[in-house]
Write a sequence for this structure.
């Protein structure tokens, strides 16, 4: 389970063992990362407290890749699998 998206990046991720854990995890993560959101304000005080106190695991992603032509890093971090990218500096494609 992850909180976030590929374009903006992931704030947290967790391996859950059952589907009944999904909603509580998401609620606590939202309470933790977005405590002033409209949705978080609708959560029970106990859920908000657990979310505030909980330690969330950051999303682990591949280290940045560099273009061999000029050394520029990949300008689109956050994707799970990167197969190719175009260097923003020199315009060459880099296969991963």
């Amino acid at each position: 389970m992850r909180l976030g998206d590929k374009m903006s990046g992931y704030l947290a991720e967790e391996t859950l063992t059952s589907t009944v854990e999904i909603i509580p995890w998401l609620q606590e993560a939202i309470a933790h990362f977005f405590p002033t959101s409209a949705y978080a304000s609708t959560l029970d005080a106990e859920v908000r407290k657990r979310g505030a106190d909980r330690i969330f695991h950051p999303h682990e992603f591949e280290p940045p890749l560099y273009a061999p032509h000029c050394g520029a890093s990949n300008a689109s971090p956050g994707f799970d699998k990167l197969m190719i990218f175009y260097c923003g500096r020199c315009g060459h494609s880099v296969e991963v």
Remarks:
- Residues 2-53 form one domain.
- The longest helix spans residues 22-33.
- The chain has two domains: 2-53, 62-96.
